[in-house]
Amino acid sequence: MGDVSPQVADTGTAGVPVVEFDDVTVCYPGKGTVRPAVVNINLTVSKGRFVCVVGPSGCGKSTLLHVCSGLLKVTDGAFRYQGKEWSKLHPGIGYVTQRETLLPWKTVLGNIALPLKINGMPRAERRDRATDMAGSVGLGDWLNAYPRELSGGMRQRVQLARTLVTEPALLLMDEPFGALDAVLRVRMQEFLKSRIEGTDLTTIFVTHDLSEALTLGDEVVAMAGAPGSIDQIDQLEDLPRKVSAVELRQVPAYAVHEARLWKTIAGNLSADGVALSNSAAERDGDHTMTAAPRGGREVS
Ligand SMILES: Nc1ncnc2c1ncn2[C@@H]1O[C@H](COP(=O)(O)OP(=O)(O)OP(=O)(O)O)[C@@H](O)[C@H]1O
């Protein structure tokens, strides 16, 4: 296991808490003995912070987002959104999931305007808002195109626009760029950074890719184990924020963060890359790094 910092993590000391996990355990409903998906989660995310969550497959990253979104209730402990215990869908929360969820029979404009329509916004107003938003994600010339006519990156931008158009206070993103090629992925990271910079939008972003986490995050939460728990929080104050993803990798502190996080994650991986159960991880003892981090060889 890597450098293990205390499990209580306050991600951003000065701000107003938007999300609070207070000693949370989550079990999915099931028959017989149910194994928890995550245990002892203590995490506070303050307003305006961009928090990336990394960790091996199965350690419970998506489970944390499901709780934040109101899709899943905690089994033990408390979850608070904007200071209140919350266990249902909240209109102020935008969720971009791993799966593509555009409606194929609706145009770019129709897809982006859909949540506004559901919220009862008058037609002319939602058309204006969706048109502006499409322009701001670089799709102003594609308003009448259907999803099948767009590239993967364009479809991902429509999904992002459809979420941002509702002006969420909390943005949850689960591997949103996972299916994109390396170049497009870096472009989308830079696009997202530029959209969010200067706003007080709070973002929780799940990724397998350490380089993505280090490029986007104010801090990185590293989860490990099965059931999953938080092993480490890396504050990224020593990384410059206004440089490109490529330039960032030349900064010496970048390599320090990457190595430290990688050690935490790799120490809890089975040979096939899945989170080890906690008993197996303890049995196997301290693991050393044997391979380059996944993100380390992407676009430079
Ligand atoms: N709907 C479900 N019902 C039962 N168990 C589930 C369900 N969804 C997830 N789990 C279990 O909860 C644990 C955590 O899953 P989760 O999807 O949160 O992990 P993850 O870190 O996001 O994985 P990945 O990186 O592969 O998406 C896993 O053991 C998984 O099998």
UniProtKB/TrEMBL annotation:
<dbReference type="InterPro" id="IPR017871">
    <property type="entry name" value="ABC_transporter-like_CS"/>
</dbReference>
<dbReference type="Pfam" id="PF00005">
    <property type="entry name" value="ABC_tran"/>
</dbReference>
<dbReference type="InterPro" id="IPR003439">
    <property type="entry name" value="ABC_transporter-like_ATP-bd"/>
</dbReference>
<keyword id="KW-0813">Transport</keyword>
<dbReference type="InterPro" id="IPR027417">
    <property type="entry name" value="P-loop_NTPase"/>
</dbReference>
<keyword id="KW-0547">Nucleotide-binding</keyword>
<dbReference type="InterPro" id="IPR050166">
    <property type="entry name" value="ABC_transporter_ATP-bind"/>
</dbReference>
<feature type="region of interest" description="Disordered">
    <location>
        <begin position="280"/>
        <end position="300"/>
    </location>
</feature>
<protein>
    <submittedName>
        <fullName>ABC transporter ATP-binding protein</fullName>
    </submittedName>
</protein>
<keyword id="KW-0067">ATP-binding</keyword>
<dbReference type="InterPro" id="IPR003593">
    <property type="entry name" value="AAA+_ATPase"/>
</dbReference>
<dbReference type="GO" id="GO:0005524">
    <property type="term" value="F:ATP binding"/>
</dbReference>
<feature type="domain" description="ABC transporter">
    <location>
        <begin position="19"/>
        <end position="252"/>
    </location>
</feature>
